[in-house]
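Q: Give me a protein?
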Amino acid sequence: MTEPLVSVVVPTRDRPDRLAVCLAALERQDHPHLEIVVVDDASRDAAAVAAAVAAAPRARLVRGEGRGPAAARNAGVREARAPIVCFTDDDCDPVPGWATALAARVAAGADAAAGPTRNGRPGDVLAAAAQAIATHLAEADVEPATGRMRFAPTSNLAARAEVLRAVPFDERYPLAAGEDRDWCARLLDGGRTLEFEPAALVRHHQDLSPRGFWRQQVRYGRGAYRFRSDHGTLLRLEAPRFYAGLVRRGFAEGVRAGGLVCAAQLATALGMGLEARAARTAKGRHS
């Protein structure tokens, strides 16, 4: 059996239908030596997840423990056999050539690389607003001359396996919020590089209700508080141009999307406040 040169890790939970679409996109990748490692993070219908994985010839299944995406990604890295590991999410469709482009960037010398993630649901204002926020956070500070970046979401990320073993995801982050920012910060603090690869495109299919959008942004606020607390930046705001750029990116998707991007900042602030209160409560119990 030929050893893979690229492993793709996909954490999943309770979305077998979307997982099947993601795996079909990964099966269309043009890289000839690619394996797919699906980590089922304790889905309620484990059989449906197993069936989706069984239908993808290059995929194999790893059972997670329901401890969140950070732990699931680490489990996938432990099972990966290739020297380069890519990550995407079960509600994403990487375009053909995605894995090849990311792997080439890493093979050329980057410790980690990331591509653009774009809204895969045109006409869905909630998905457009959510993706505008995530895209701005990732791409606002990309250095044009070098392609260096400070943050990339794990919907579209690759790194050398040895780097991921030296810098694992912090499993104290139980939610899909903040754990990717923490990983990127620790990667860069260790003197390693994260580079942008524009050819590695992923389409993100977020199926959000108004309540789901609000809850997502509150969750991101909780993760942001934990991240800032861990890294000593609770009182350090982004530069005004960051927020101006965020609003412009939101309104570029339409007036309604722009309004949602502004509303999301209130949800994020609420999430930070909730997490701050939870941290104080936990500290009081242990004092």
Q: What stands out?
A: The CA atoms of residues 126 and 208 lie 6 Å apart. Residues 255-286 form the longest helix (32 residues).
